[in-house]
Amino acid sequence: MPETTFRIFRYQPDSGETESYHQDFQLEHGEKTTLLDAILRIQNEQDGTVAVRYSCRSAICGSCACKANGKTVLACMTQVEHVKTDSGQEIVQVDPIGNFTPIKDLVVDMTPFWEKFKAVKPFLIPDGPAPEKERLVPKAAMEKIANESKCILCAACYSECNSLAADPEFVGPAAFAWGYRFAADERDGQRKNRAKLYSGEHGVWDCTRCMFCNERCPKGVDPRDAIEKLGSIAFQEKVTSDKGARHAKAFLISLRTGGKLNEILIAPYTDPLGAPFNAPLALRMAQKGKLPKSPLTHKVKDRDQVKKLIKNVKETI
Amino acid sequence: MPRQFAYYPGCVAEFSSKELNATTKALAPLLDIELLPMPQATCCGAGDVAEAKPNLYLTLNVRILSEAEAMGVDILTICNVCTLNLRRANKMVKDDPRVLEAVNEELVKAGARPYQGTIEVTHLLWFLATEEGLSLLEARGPRGLNGLKVAPYYGCQLLRPSSVMGFEDPDRPQSLERLITALGGEVSDYEGKSRCCGFPIILAREEVALKESHVALSGARDAGAQVMVTPCPLCHLAMDAYQRKTEQLMGEEYAMPVLHLPQLIGLALGLPTKTMEFKRHLVPVDEVLSIVGA
Prior knowledge:
The structure holds 2 protein chains of 2 kinds.
Chain A (H helix, E strand, L loop, with lengths): L2 E8 L10 E8 L6 H11 L19 E4 L2 E4 L5 H8 L4 E4 L5 E4 L2 E3 L1 H9 L19 H5 L12 H4 L2 H5 L6 H11 L7 H8 L13 H5 L6 H14 L6 H15 L5 H8 L8 H9 L15 H10 L5
Helix pairs in contact in A: 3-7, 7-8, 7-10, 8-10, 11-12
Chain B lengths: L2 E6 L2 H4 L3 H10 L5 E4 L11 H5 L1 H18 L3 E3 L2 H16 L1 H13 L11 E3 H5 L2 H9 L9 E4 L22 H8 L3 E2 L18 H17 L4 E4 L2 H9 L1 H8 L7 E3 H9 L16 H7 L2
């Protein structure tokens, strides 16, 4: 039977411990023992004060997310031996999920996560009076939101979101996966309002596309893809005044007028009011030849094909 | 016979960061690579077009893949973002024949060549970090980096999502480390090497973006690196051009020169410094050049 050292994050402010530290526990365990079972055995057999949040043990409730050797996982669906192979380390260090404040050991304060979840209005808001019979939805329409419907709100995505680390107010990947799940539901009547609600200062255009959320989600939700689709819905609903949307528009203009990026256009078009404040950097970049001398667009060969595609291709979001 | 690629430098390397394009082109013959131009190729949309108009993004990127297919060669990129966008479109049409059919219908209607799905997209880093690539470097008998302490900086989109990229473990990437070591440099390892540079939102959310690049810049500095190297020109802009702004925002000094990957290889192989156009960098690289004796 394998034996592993578990280096567990400890923080017990209720007991007067104001500083966190890591404590090592040795455990002999089975080849297929999950990380959660290992932690619970340590709690039962070695130190009853080790705090961990869990419930279903079956990757459904989303309670037991934590970091194993730096990578956010669901403890109940991750085998200890896999953590070791994956990370190339013999010791398994267990930490609370990131971008949260720990309350006690592996338990974090989820309040901001739930507040943001509530803020996206994660429920159906149909238009008009309720029908007499149930609303029938074709299978194809549900398939569009099938991925996002799998979210169990475990916060594995939130834990490693790079935008959240820099801007704690960012709504974040899980809440937006739910936002898309309802914005794209054909029974919902709030598509445009949702596009407006999600496009605010800490909204969808805050996403830096680090792709950690897609990489970490244990259920294959791909929250970044949901955020991207919310961007498309914003475009379809003509909610495009945010700087992030204007940035995307500058790319569309570049494609239409030449085919390649027009780097003279992109900064002032994205942020017309802020551009003057960036003048010192623009000047330094110009001195180094980083800005083009000519405002002419870069034209690709057979540009008429590109123009036709821009005109013809219909969006189906 | 040199290995031929359809060369897709991407907009940033072609315009703002010409030094990357110039160095790659100068380096190619030394590595027995022939870079064939793609005159029809548009911008990949940088993730922005995918966000605004997903079907248009897909169609435009498949048109790029189709141009390479007509040339009969795979695509070589030198930008993380272009690599992700092209590979993602490639995967979407290769995974689902109905999607390919719909895209081809649009391409044909616009007078463009339909795509058969036979092309692969690779990044220069991936090509060089294989046994084939490393043996090409060895064949040049590298002059070496003279123990230069190099912080590898991957950024995001060459690693994640791994379902689309898939060259290496996104949590334990080693390709840059392999190259740095093979070229006679010393790896300065640090946690921030695969975190985001913030560039995709640097114009729309500057402060958020700069706080992101701070993680990597301060990590590389604290690891004792003398220089940072990146395979992506967008990361380069965030780390080099915006570095002073990040210093001002965070109240810290990094003084971290940042090289494009081909420049690091060029230094080791003795490419003339003038060719690599270091004068276009905002953070001076003079100390790096003196350490490697360039």
